[in-house]
Amino acid sequence: MSDTPTPDVEIDSRGAACPGPLMDLIGKVKDADSGTVIELLTSDEGSKNDVPEWLEEAGHELLRIEEEDDYWAIYIETT
Amino acid sequence: MTEEIVIVGGGSGGSILANRLTERLGPSIEDGDVRITLINDGEYQYYKPAYLYVPFGKKTVEEAKRPIADLIDRRVEFRVGRVTELDTDGKVVSLADGDELEYDHLVLATGSNLAPEKVPGLAEGGHHFYSPEGSQALREELADFEEGHLVLSVIGVPHMCPAAPLEFVFMADDWLRKRGLREDVEITYTYPIQRAHGLEEIAEWATPKLEERDINLETFFNVESVDPDDQVLETMEGNEMDYDLLVGIVPHEGSDLVSDAGLGDDGWVAVDNHTLEAEDAEDVYAIGDVADVPTSKAGSVAHYESTTIADRIASRVRGETPTAAYDGKTICFIETGMDEATFVDFDYQNGPTMREPSAPVHWAKLGYNEAYWLTARGLM
Predict the structure, then answer these.
(1) Global pTM?
(2) Is B237 on the interface with A (CB under 8 A)?
(3) To 10 degrees, the CA torsion angle through B19, B23, B25, B29?
């Protein structure tokens, strides 16, 4: 898909239950420089809500959520 | 030729596994067809759940340890030594003293390590109850703490015993009330995500209890650094919080052995959730905290996993197809004060059912803390 951002970092949290994917993301964001594009792969539907909620709280940008067959790809950019 | 089973780590998982394997393979061990070697980097096993009680003067760190040699079957070869390298292609374990051990089946049970250095200022500014030294130092600090802001911040996730942070604030609340100090101490509990605990059921159960006890709850609170001089926490979300006494649940990490051997990220072994077999090596298993499975880093998990692995390895040794599988079974006691507790059990498929706390469950927890050594021996 042409609009899909190109990630600098990929986190594959598929198979992890909530809150695993969000915690995996927080851990990576902690170590990431500003402007890093992160792709989070999650099979936990709750991540579609948890992750944007935390991004808003922490001030990072949600770029896109793509729904695949049995998982979601969430793209974010750190600020 | 002797079939070699090597277990690295003599905590709960390692000792229970060694004992269960001797139960299943006793005659083969006696005949010299099978050898079980347990390697640990010290002579003692430490029962970490006891550390929660040390800050409140209810237990001592000394009573929370036993010599491993007293816990394991005499037919297990116990070696004190530090494993420095795993060669999963050559099936060799290297030790710091230069020795090398070949294995047919390798079980990693190396546990978790505390990594306070991952958060600047945390080691200097915070206390914790996850090690003998830490819980003893917190005891001394708490003994003199008569007024101010007590903050328990869950900083590192995953961490051992996920219920312990809630237990600590519930116990601190009760302990301070009983000492007539509660009105002069503000208590705050912080958690990294949008609720009070990783498991939704526990979060929903705990939140009104925190409110009833007048314990502040801060969520989406991820500590980035600690200023030990000004006693301030700074978060990834851009917030600050003053504290007078900080109890920080420090970041945990697995073992460098695991990362160096390419078995998983951050030192946790990537395993199949049910067979606990390493995804990136043959005949390698992981149990307890070091296994990267989607449940708690808790003693009960190590206990149930070790039973599964004992069955699987015993089947392999006998030339059978292993069928035992771990279903994610986890049991945790949760203290809700100094005299009451509840417990939860859950697995991969089923979340916990919350029960009202009671005094008998608290007594059961205290009783189990003593009876644990029977579990370590494989007897319970």
Answers:
(1) 0.94
(2) yes
(3) 60
